[in-house]
Amino acid sequence: xxxxxxxxxxxxxxxxxxxxxxxLSALDQTLVRAxxxxxxxxxxxxxxFAVILLDVQMPGMDGFETAAHIKRRERTRDIPIIFLTAINxxxxxxxxxYAAGAVDYISKPFDPWVLRAKVSVFVELYMKNCKLREQAAxxxxxxxxxxxxxxxxxxxxxxxxxxxxxLAAVEEQAEALSKQLDDESADAAAVATAAHLExxxxxxxxxxxxxxxxxxxxxxxxxx
Length: 224
Known about the structure:
Residues 6-123 form the Response regulatory domain. This protein is an alpha/beta fold. It is 56% helix and 11% strand. α5 packs antiparallel against α6, α5 (112-143) runs parallel beside α7 (188-211) and α6 runs antiparallel to α7 (188-211).
Protein backbone atom coordinates (compact mmCIF):
# COMPACT_ATOMS: atom_id res chain seq x y z
CA UNK A 1 0.00 0.00 0.00
CA UNK A 2 1.46 3.37 -1.04
CA UNK A 3 1.80 5.78 1.85
CA UNK A 4 0.06 9.11 1.34
CA UNK A 5 1.97 12.36 1.36
CA UNK A 6 1.22 14.96 4.03
CA UNK A 7 0.33 18.54 3.11
CA UNK A 8 0.52 21.21 5.82
CA UNK A 9 -2.16 23.92 5.69
CA UNK A 10 -1.39 26.98 7.83
CA UNK A 11 -4.02 29.70 8.33
CA UNK A 12 -5.48 31.37 11.43
CA UNK A 13 -8.99 31.43 9.95
CA UNK A 14 -10.92 28.12 10.17
CA UNK A 15 -13.02 28.97 7.10
CA UNK A 16 -9.87 29.34 5.01
CA UNK A 17 -8.56 25.97 6.21
CA UNK A 18 -11.91 24.41 5.35
CA UNK A 19 -11.78 25.90 1.85
CA UNK A 20 -8.23 24.60 1.30
CA UNK A 21 -9.29 21.13 2.41
CA UNK A 22 -12.21 21.19 -0.02
CA UNK A 23 -9.92 22.20 -2.90
CA LEU A 24 -7.16 19.68 -2.13
CA SER A 25 -9.31 16.71 -1.07
CA ALA A 26 -9.34 15.48 -4.68
CA LEU A 27 -5.59 14.77 -4.42
CA ASP A 28 -6.36 12.03 -1.87
CA GLN A 29 -3.42 12.92 0.39
CA THR A 30 -3.22 13.58 4.14
CA LEU A 31 -4.12 17.20 4.94
CA VAL A 32 -2.82 18.54 8.26
CA ARG A 33 -4.19 21.76 9.77
CA ALA A 34 -2.24 24.40 11.70
CA UNK A 35 -3.93 27.59 12.92
CA UNK A 36 -0.73 29.50 13.70
CA UNK A 37 2.95 29.65 12.86
CA UNK A 38 3.81 28.13 16.22
CA UNK A 39 1.45 25.21 15.61
CA UNK A 40 2.95 24.67 12.16
CA UNK A 41 6.49 24.53 13.55
CA UNK A 42 5.36 22.00 16.16
CA UNK A 43 3.84 19.77 13.46
CA UNK A 44 7.07 19.95 11.46
CA UNK A 45 9.05 18.56 14.41
CA UNK A 46 7.53 15.10 14.05
CA UNK A 47 6.09 14.72 10.54
CA UNK A 48 7.48 14.94 7.00
CA PHE A 49 5.51 17.06 4.53
CA ALA A 50 5.49 17.25 0.74
CA VAL A 51 4.51 20.93 0.64
CA ILE A 52 3.36 23.72 2.96
CA LEU A 53 0.55 26.18 2.15
CA LEU A 54 1.26 29.16 4.38
CA ASP A 55 -0.93 32.21 4.98
CA VAL A 56 1.07 35.45 5.09
CA GLN A 57 -1.09 37.48 7.48
CA MET A 58 -1.49 35.77 10.85
CA PRO A 59 -1.53 37.25 14.37
CA GLY A 60 1.66 36.73 16.34
CA MET A 61 4.11 34.88 14.11
CA ASP A 62 3.22 35.80 10.53
CA GLY A 63 3.94 33.76 7.41
CA PHE A 64 7.30 35.39 6.70
CA GLU A 65 8.61 34.69 10.19
CA THR A 66 7.25 31.14 10.12
CA ALA A 67 8.95 30.48 6.78
CA ALA A 68 12.24 31.84 8.14
CA HIS A 69 12.10 29.35 11.02
CA ILE A 70 11.28 26.50 8.62
CA LYS A 71 14.22 27.34 6.35
CA ARG A 72 16.65 27.53 9.29
CA ARG A 73 15.93 23.95 10.34
CA GLU A 74 17.94 21.31 8.52
CA ARG A 75 15.05 18.83 8.72
CA THR A 76 12.55 21.17 7.04
CA ARG A 77 14.52 23.66 4.93
CA ASP A 78 13.90 21.81 1.65
CA ILE A 79 10.11 21.57 2.03
CA PRO A 80 8.43 23.71 -0.69
CA ILE A 81 6.38 26.62 0.70
CA ILE A 82 3.50 28.24 -1.20
CA PHE A 83 2.52 31.59 0.30
CA LEU A 84 -1.16 32.56 0.26
CA THR A 85 -2.07 36.22 0.79
CA ALA A 86 -5.27 38.26 0.72
CA ILE A 87 -3.59 41.67 0.71
CA ASN A 88 -2.93 43.83 -2.34
CA UNK A 89 0.84 43.48 -2.49
CA UNK A 90 3.39 45.26 -4.62
CA UNK A 91 6.69 43.99 -6.03
CA UNK A 92 8.52 44.60 -2.74
CA UNK A 93 6.00 42.48 -0.81
CA UNK A 94 6.28 39.68 -3.37
CA UNK A 95 10.07 39.82 -3.25
CA UNK A 96 9.94 39.47 0.52
CA UNK A 97 7.94 36.27 0.10
CA TYR A 98 10.46 34.72 -2.27
CA ALA A 99 13.34 35.93 -0.09
CA ALA A 100 11.75 34.08 2.83
CA GLY A 101 12.01 30.83 0.88
CA ALA A 102 8.67 30.53 -0.92
CA VAL A 103 8.50 28.62 -4.21
CA ASP A 104 5.29 30.40 -5.16
CA TYR A 105 3.19 33.37 -4.07
CA ILE A 106 -0.55 33.22 -4.72
CA SER A 107 -3.07 35.99 -4.05
CA LYS A 108 -6.56 35.29 -2.71
CA PRO A 109 -9.05 34.66 -4.13
CA PHE A 110 -7.14 32.10 -6.17
CA ASP A 111 -8.18 29.68 -8.87
CA PRO A 112 -8.84 26.32 -7.13
CA TRP A 113 -7.73 24.33 -10.17
CA VAL A 114 -4.42 26.20 -10.42
CA LEU A 115 -3.67 25.76 -6.72
CA ARG A 116 -4.51 22.05 -6.86
CA ALA A 117 -2.31 21.58 -9.93
CA LYS A 118 0.66 23.34 -8.28
CA VAL A 119 0.34 21.30 -5.10
CA SER A 120 0.02 18.03 -7.06
CA VAL A 121 3.40 18.65 -8.74
CA PHE A 122 5.18 18.92 -5.38
CA VAL A 123 3.33 15.90 -4.02
CA GLU A 124 4.47 13.83 -7.01
CA LEU A 125 8.07 15.00 -6.62
CA TYR A 126 7.93 14.10 -2.92
CA MET A 127 6.66 10.60 -3.67
CA LYS A 128 9.43 10.05 -6.24
CA ASN A 129 12.04 11.13 -3.68
CA CYS A 130 10.57 8.73 -1.12
CA LYS A 131 10.86 5.83 -3.57
CA LEU A 132 14.44 6.79 -4.36
CA ARG A 133 15.39 6.85 -0.68
CA GLU A 134 13.81 3.42 -0.17
CA GLN A 135 15.84 1.93 -3.02
CA ALA A 136 19.06 3.52 -1.76
CA ALA A 137 18.41 2.24 1.78
CA UNK A 138 17.78 -1.30 0.52
CA UNK A 139 20.97 -1.25 -1.51
CA UNK A 140 22.98 0.00 1.46
CA UNK A 141 21.66 -2.87 3.59
CA UNK A 142 22.81 -5.40 1.05
CA UNK A 143 26.23 -3.77 0.56
CA UNK A 144 26.79 -3.74 4.32
CA UNK A 145 25.94 -7.44 4.52
CA UNK A 146 22.94 -6.95 6.77
CA UNK A 147 21.05 -10.23 6.67
CA UNK A 148 17.98 -8.96 8.53
CA UNK A 149 16.16 -7.62 5.48
CA UNK A 150 13.37 -9.44 3.65
CA UNK A 151 15.67 -10.15 0.68
CA UNK A 152 18.60 -11.61 2.64
CA UNK A 153 18.09 -15.10 1.24
CA UNK A 154 18.31 -14.02 -2.42
CA UNK A 155 21.36 -14.56 -4.60
CA UNK A 156 23.34 -11.32 -5.26
CA UNK A 157 22.67 -11.46 -9.02
CA UNK A 158 18.94 -11.87 -8.44
CA UNK A 159 18.89 -9.04 -5.91
CA UNK A 160 20.71 -6.69 -8.29
CA UNK A 161 18.27 -7.55 -11.06
CA UNK A 162 15.32 -6.81 -8.79
CA UNK A 163 16.84 -3.51 -7.61
CA UNK A 164 17.57 -2.54 -11.21
CA UNK A 165 13.97 -3.24 -12.21
CA UNK A 166 12.61 -1.19 -9.30
CA LEU A 167 14.93 1.68 -10.14
CA ALA A 168 13.92 1.53 -13.82
CA ALA A 169 10.29 2.01 -12.82
CA VAL A 170 11.18 5.11 -10.78
CA GLU A 171 13.37 6.42 -13.62
CA GLU A 172 10.49 6.05 -16.07
CA GLN A 173 8.11 7.94 -13.78
CA ALA A 174 10.67 10.71 -13.17
CA GLU A 175 11.24 11.11 -16.91
CA ALA A 176 7.50 11.39 -17.53
CA LEU A 177 7.20 13.99 -14.76
CA SER A 178 10.05 16.06 -16.22
CA LYS A 179 8.38 16.04 -19.65
CA GLN A 180 5.12 17.10 -18.03
CA LEU A 181 6.83 20.01 -16.28
CA ASP A 182 8.44 21.11 -19.55
CA ASP A 183 5.13 20.95 -21.39
CA GLU A 184 3.29 22.98 -18.78
CA SER A 185 6.01 25.61 -18.28
CA ALA A 186 5.93 24.84 -14.58
CA ASP A 187 7.46 26.88 -11.78
CA ALA A 188 11.24 27.10 -11.83
CA ALA A 189 11.38 25.61 -8.34
CA ALA A 190 9.46 22.52 -9.43
CA VAL A 191 11.71 22.07 -12.46
CA ALA A 192 14.81 22.42 -10.28
CA THR A 193 13.48 19.86 -7.80
CA ALA A 194 12.78 17.43 -10.63
CA ALA A 195 16.31 17.92 -11.98
CA HIS A 196 17.72 17.23 -8.52
CA LEU A 197 15.71 14.00 -8.36
CA GLU A 198 17.04 12.92 -11.78
CA UNK A 199 20.62 13.53 -10.62
CA UNK A 200 20.04 11.30 -7.61
CA UNK A 201 18.55 8.61 -9.83
CA UNK A 202 21.59 8.81 -12.11
CA UNK A 203 23.91 8.36 -9.14
CA UNK A 204 21.97 5.34 -7.91
CA UNK A 205 21.97 3.80 -11.40
CA UNK A 206 25.75 4.20 -11.61
CA UNK A 207 26.15 2.57 -8.21
CA UNK A 208 24.05 -0.40 -9.33
CA UNK A 209 25.95 -0.70 -12.60
CA UNK A 210 29.24 -0.75 -10.68
CA UNK A 211 28.03 -3.80 -8.76
CA UNK A 212 27.37 -5.82 -11.91
CA UNK A 213 29.81 -8.71 -12.54
CA UNK A 214 32.84 -7.51 -14.51
CA UNK A 215 32.19 -3.86 -13.69
CA UNK A 216 35.36 -3.54 -11.60
CA UNK A 217 36.13 -3.89 -7.93
CA UNK A 218 36.04 -0.22 -6.92
CA UNK A 219 33.53 0.83 -4.24
CA UNK A 220 30.16 2.15 -5.38
CA UNK A 221 29.14 5.55 -4.12
CA UNK A 222 25.45 5.89 -3.28
CA UNK A 223 23.49 9.14 -3.49
CA UNK A 224 22.66 10.59 -0.10
